[in-house]
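Board notes (copied after class):
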Amino acid sequence: MSREASYGKTKLNNVKEDSALTVLLSKDSAFQRPDSKARKKILELLGLADFSSRAFDLIQTDVPTPPITAQNAHEYIDTIRLVEVKATKAAIEDENLHGFFFGATENEYRLAAKLGDRYKFAFVVLSPKNNGPPFFVLLTLAEVDKRTKTKRIQFQVNLRSKETSK
């Protein structure tokens, strides 16, 4: 795949993910999008500082709270769930999510396994089959596993650039 095509695909995926984040943030005020410092602090407070803060997109609390920051995260840590967003524009019929296809990193799966109910996958359907409004379903890793038909591992490999291969 050419660099331009790869960039174009990444740009489209980013637009799709931003749309999904907007759906979640607008439908439920218990969701928040913490900045990178807050995300790192939350992982530290959970005893999981060795995980990448990119292994989740949002946080969710039991009830809406003021914005959670690196400075105040300790006040809310017991109510915080980490949320990884997976989005599709496929015509998915309903909350059963039949046919939903997504990619996930090993880091996301490992973190979800460690946190159990405190880590959710948010599956956002941007173009429902019934032409209704976008919707989402929150699932734990155990719930994802129960619904999974097949799973395969894929390596993503970046070869050295010309400048670094010397």
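Comment from the instructor: The first strand starts at residue 31 and ends at 32. The mean pLDDT is 90.
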